[in-house]
Amino acid sequence: MFGLTFEKILLIGIIAVFLLGPDKLPHYAAQLGRLVRQLRDMANGAKDRMRDEMGPEFDDLDWKKLDPRQYDPRRIIREALADEDPFKDQSATISRAEPNPEGAYLKRKRARDAALTALEPAPFDSEST
User: Which parts of the sequence are annotated with region: Disordered (predicted)?
Assistant: First the structure.
């Protein structure tokens, strides 16, 4: 919890005893207890309202999958580089099943891009800007 260990919390408590004094400390401790209780009630209220609005899907959610701390970018990149093309087989079956009009466009675009050499200037369209 916020990187606080038991020793740090104990040290903060000892400093609070010296700064506040024994006569004011129970009052501030009671205020802290009320604040923590109010925060807990607000969190539970938000959870209950979420459950009411989402319906039964709320209980079916796996909240551990949505935790952003589980995502390690190095692991994701390593897995992505190690995998072969997952859409390789799917694209072959899709292209055999039905003609793809976007495929013809991509072939023309690739042919046009291949025709441009490094020495030629790129085409310029004055109306595009």
Answer: 87-109
Residue with tokens 């959610």: 61
- Cα(127)–Cα(123) distance, integer angstroms: 12
For residue 73, the SS3 value is: helix
Q: Per-residue DSSP letters for 82-93?
A: HS--TTHHHHHH
57/59 Cα distance (integer angstroms): 5
Instruction: Give 98's DSSP letter.
Output: S
Residue 11 carries which side chain, given as an amino acid letter? L
Extents of the domains making up the chain: 11-86
pTM beyond 0.85, yes or no: no
Q: What is the pLDDT of residue 97?
A: 47
Which residue bears the tokens 């690739």? 110
